[in-house]
Amino acid sequence: MKLLAISMLLAGAALAQDASLKARELFYTPPPDGAPKKPAAKTQAQNTKTTQAPMEHHSKPMVPVVNAANVPLGLRYSVLKRDASGTFHEVDSDTTFRSGDRIRLHVDTNTSGYLYVVMQGSSGNWRLLFPSSDVEGGNNRIEKGSSQQIPSGDKGQFVFDQQSGTEKLFLVLSRKPEPDLDKLIYSITGAQSSDRTLVAQASVGDDVVNRLRDEVKSRDLVFEKVDEDGAKPEKATYVVNPKRTDDARLVVDVALKHGK
Fold first, then answer.
1. What angle do CA 212, 213, 218 make, to 5 degrees?
2. Is the full-model pTM beyond 0.90?
3. For residue 17, what is the enclosing H or E element?
4. pLDDT, tens only, 105-136
5. Which DSSP state fits 55?
6. Beta strand residue intervals within 83-211, DSSP E
7. Pairing of the two strands 234-241 and 222-228
8. Which are the contacts of 159, defined by CB distance < 8 A and separation ≥ 6?
9. Which helix H or strand E contains 224, and what residues bound it?
10. For tag attachment on the chain, is the N or C end more exposed, with fewer CB atoms within 10 Å?
11. Which residues lie across from 172 on neighbouring strands?
12. 54: burial class by Cβ within 10 Å (0-12, 13-18, 19+)?
């Protein structure tokens, strides 16, 4: 009971501190002092590229109520636009892009979890962008501090055509796999298996996206748009779920405006 009381006090103190912080500050929040640490052996296994990450089916912690070692679940995204020299730079995500513009999406996370990115096509269905077979064999498990470029690869980019409108992206970051999305984009062998094989031409229905939106209300998330010039310019958006629970998740809508 002492361990439970200490963990609850740590969680309460962390939440009280989080309430006064902006999204970027929450994103870089370190684990609270005195929080229980994961064994070093697990950390090394997670960082070994040749070892496939598990699907969170490991044994439960001693205190399942709140894992105080978890930081708030945070995501940073930015839109990178290619200039005349072929170099990509961060630009305001509210920029109105023109036909022929070439862009990428850059996503950073502050903790380990599962990332999903889909884009809405003209049919109304959502096409899968991440996970991708080009990245970790299609595994969407991401580790703390990792960055993802979408589309992946040196030549990965979106090119705006002649059709004006709004391109819609939907991002999901969660500490555990999302069952509704996994059923659509993975062929998983066995309930306890970590074999997550991408389904060919996977697509996500509008109903699934709307359901995920409804389950995570925007009032539960902290948003901050950063637009700073200077020696190290930053033009990005931070989205954070302050909850430190194992089932925390966040959802983000990104609208890319395309003018003529």
1. 135
2. no
3. helix 2-18
4. 999 999 999 999 999 976 788 999 999 988 88
5. -
6. 88-91, 96-97, 102-109, 113-120, 126-130, 141-142, 147-150, 158-159, 165-174, 186-188, 196-198, 203-204
7. antiparallel
8. 100, 101, 102
9. strand 222-228
10. N
11. 116, 251
12. middle
